[in-house]
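Quick sanity check, Peroxiredoxin (Alkyl hydroperoxide reductase subunit C):
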Amino acid sequence: MSPAGPDSPRHGAAPVPRPGDRAPDLVLPDQYGEPTSLAEAVQDRAALLVFFPFAFSAICTGELLEVQLDIDRFSNDRVQVHGISCDSTYALRVWAAQEGYRFPLLSDFWPHGEVCRAFGVLDEESGHPVRGTFLVGTDQKVIWSLVHGPEEERPIGLLHEAVALL
């Protein structure tokens, strides 16, 4: 965990799920409006959930572009990436097209931040998620997690190490 961990006042009431905990279920629309369920997503392979504050922001764009550049390591027969923010599906669709993302971007727009809150990564004061990353196994249990504040970049190497656990 990072300085913006589960006991930080920025986070919602729910604690950040730790390795071994069952991940909260989620059903969110992707950038095309198609519903995505965590339970369905992890039926055949693990899910790397990458919560990010804002589409089109510099740090978020840089992080997700790094994931995109290594997409074969992050989305393969063992794991699938899912980006999650409180942006609307429309904003996520335009951003994904502009940046060429080849993984689903899920919208926690309404009810606003409900899934982010369930994962303990919603900054209640600003209404956007902090940089939470969770690797969830096919049993829907958290294998690995990392939480950073909104201004701190995720070290891409740590994501590689997490996916190597599979």
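Posting the structure with no commentary besides this: The chain has one domain: 27-164.
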